[in-house]
């Protein structure tokens, strides 16, 4: 019975999903407005621009809003895909039932059709597993990118707060570049000398 019972119960559940989707979109819009007001507050003249805790809180709220929006769109897309698949499977199941009830003579073709239908369902299951793995990888990369952005913003805040640290970092970078050029020149000269020695 679990194979013949549809996962989605008709128009009542569709209406419930649409109502809930509208409510969630309104809540996300309100949360976006709150984040925008927080950003306006941090950019106002009376607030110190280098308050690291305030900037971290604002970035954290933006990340939470982005995660909520992403999860909502993913859930909505999954629901729409499941509903379309259920509609398709329901029509195929009706065709199979009508074919089985209408012609009891050609059972061999019916069995082949059912086997093909099972193969299609297995392929669909494998595709869904692959998509879920890809989505998990994408979410992991997104979280890592958020962490790198937060680290970069903290480094920029520190660099702006302490100009001496910024100048020290620039000196270190210049020294690294100079050492790389010297090392490259030494390697190049050694390579030329080895080639000259090898051919003479």
Describe the protein in words.
The model is unreliable at 1-8 (pLDDT under 50). The chain has a domain at 9-103. Helix 1 runs antiparallel to helix 2 (52-102), helix 2 runs antiparallel to helix 3 and helix 3 crosses helix 4. The chain starts with 9 loop residues before the first helix and ends with a helix. The protein has 200 residues and is an all-alpha fold. 0% of the residues are buried. Helices cover 88% and strands 0% of the residues. GO terms for molecular function: SNAP receptor activity.
Percentage of residues in DSSP E strands: under 5%
Helix content: over 70%
Task: Sum up the overall morphology in one term.
Answer: flat
| Count of DSSP-assigned helices | 4
Number of strands: 0
Q: Write down the overall mean pLDDT.
A: 78
Which series of helices and strands comes N to C?
Answer: HHHH
Rg result = 31 Å
Sequence stretches where pLDDT stays below 50 over 5 or more residues: 1-8
Strand-pairing-aware structural class:
mainly alpha
Largest sheet: none
Q: End-to-end span in angstroms?
A: 87 Å
Membrane topology: Single-pass type IV membrane protein
Pfam family, one: V-SNARE_C
Keywords: Golgi apparatus, Membrane, Protein transport, Receptor, Transmembrane, Transmembrane helix, Transport
Subcellular location: Golgi apparatus membrane
